[in-house]
Design a protein that fits this description.
Layout: E1 3-8, E2 11-16, H1 23-31, H2 41-58, H3 66-80, H4 99-116, H5 129-133, H6 139-175, E3 180-185, E4 188-194, H7 195-214, H8 217-220, E5 222-223, H9 240-252, E6 257-258, H10 263-266, H11 269-295, E7 306-307, H12 325-348, H13 359-383, E8 389-390, H14 392-401, H15 410-413, H16 415-428, H17 432-438, H18 444-457
Length: 460
């Protein structure tokens, strides 16, 4: 590989000749060959948007000149349009606070701007990565702001996945509102319900979880950009926090406002709030996925009340076997998301004094949780929920085999006599329906109507 030689405060270092980044980025690539994972794309764009907004806000007397501002803005716009995203190369596990990524961004933008103005890569004239691109900024205020902006960018996609899955559960719930089935509590037969009620409840819960996540949006819009190195606003232009927040609001379409500059550098509470809400969604999805796998168990020896569409052969040794792989996948993703939330929690409490230095990994954990969960929900919805089959005959068989139907007799003959009916059904194997008719409590048709009414209305 051909190299150019650049120099920083530590001395000379080789930089790949074709690279748009510079010496500090090259050092970071050499220092941190950890995960092999480059920065999240939404995070890259968010950080570049900050540099663009900062250039606009800094263009005032005695600060950034208009010609430098224009060159920086144009370079940022090129990246935001998708150019040179491959030049953001620092591993997600890097120096605390994200200094390496901040300099990666500064160097790429400076080199793009300088070459556009007739200069050379690595010469940093007339645009300097620290003095011009990073003017009035620090890693310590740009990185937490970029994490917030990246989460705001991901939020609509995650919420859309929640809405799509909830809508599908609602559709099934409506279509199967009269499909009577046995309820189960403690994994034992219970009173009748409907499959529609069961699935509508899944939809309601998912929408509630989505509301919890959406509630984090206003907090994410409160940024500490302008705090500079320690929340004091050192070396920032007049009114910079308000000016740069207004520029970011225009760029993102979000209600971005300047907040407590010191607190937003010390505390990652708002990001923990978002992570906790995502954990809540993952927990509910885990429960729902387990339910669907139970309901689809079989096909001969399990519950088999639903059939999930086959998407691949289920076994390398058992011919014809089909497994509920989409919801197994969703389970695995949910468990991983729970792990990411735990990591976020540990890192949130790991800040000291004026700064939380765990931000690079903290942001990465959040980004993964949001992306993975949204993608997994979309895949499970498209591949399984939309083709789910209800086995109504199986539901009918189970409900009439259930001794839990004896509960419906409580208002008519009392708890103790109803318990005797249940015991007789369990001992003889006869359905409660038949025993009720034999005891002339009511005929079979009347009992069927009672079951349907109880399942639909909860009334007998």
């Amino acid at each position: 590989m051909a190299y150019r030689i650049e120099k920083d405060s530590l001395g000379e270092f080789k930089v790949p000749l074709e690279a748009w980044y510079g010496v500090q980025t090259a050092r970071a690539v050499d220092n941190f060959p950890i995960s092999g994972r480059k920065p999240d794309t939404d995070f890259i764009r968010a950080h570049v948007a900050i540099k663009l907004a900062a250039a606009q806000a800094n263009c005032q007397p005695d600060w950034l000149t208009a010609d430098k501002r224009d060159a920086i803005v144009t370079a940022c716009q090129r990246v935001l349009q998708g150019e040179h995203l491959d030049q953001f190369v620092v591993d997600r596990f890097q120096a605390g606070a994200g200094t390496s990524h901040n300099m990666n961004t500064n160097e790429v933008i400076a080199n793009l701007a300088n070459v556009a103005l007739g200069g050379e890569k690595g010469k940093y004239a007339p645009i300097h990565p620290n003095d011009d691109v990073n003017m009035g900024q620090s890693t310590n205020d740009t990185i937490p702001t970029a994490i917030r902006l990246a989460c705001l960018a991901k939020l609509p996609r995650l919420l859309a996945a929640v809405d799509t899955m909830a809508t599908e559960f609602e559709r099934i719930g409506h279509e199967e509102r009269d499909t009577v089935k046995s309820g189960r509590t403690h994994l034992q037969d219970a009173v009748p319900t409907t499959l529609g009620r069961e699935f509508a409840a899944y939809a309601w819960t998912l929408r509630r979880a989505g509301q919890q996540i959406a509630a984090a949006r206003p907090r994410l819009c409160e940024i500490g950009l302008g705090g500079s190195a320690a929340g004091t606003g050192l070396n920032t232009a007049p009114d910079y926090p308000q000016r740069v927040a207004a520029e970011l609001a225009k760029l993102t379409g979000e209600a971005i406002v300047a907040s407590d500059l010191a607190a937003q550098m010390q505390s990652m509470l708002d990001l923990q709030t978002l992570s906790s809400a995502i954990r809540g969604l993952a927990l509910e999805l885990t429960r729902i996925s387990n339910d669907l796998r139970l309901l689809a168990s079989g096909p001969r020896t399990g519950l088999g009340e639903i059939t999930l569409p086959p998407v691949q052969p289920g076994s390398s040794i058992m011919p014809g076997k089909v497994n509920p792989v989409m919801f197994e996948m969703l389970n695995q993703v949910c468990y991983q998301v729970l792990g990411q939330d735990a990591a976020v929690g540990y890192m949130v409490q790991a800040g000291q004094l004026e700064l939380n230095v765990m931000m690079p990994a903290l942001g990465s954990a959040l980004f993964d949780a949001m992306d993975w969960l949204g993608n997994a929900m979309n895949a499970a919805t498209e591949k399984n929920l939309k083709g789910l089959i209800i086995n109504r005959d199986r539901c009918y068989t189970f409900i009439h085999d259930s001794v839990g139907l004896a509960t419906l007799l409580n208002p008519t003959i009392g708890y103790m006599k109803a318990a005797e009916i249940a015991k007789e059904s369990e001992k003889s194997g006869k359905p409660v329906r038949e025993i009720v008719a034999e005891h002339q409590i009511m005929n079979r048709e009347e009992f069927d109507a009672l079951v349907l009414k109880a399942a639909r209305d909860g009334k007998v």
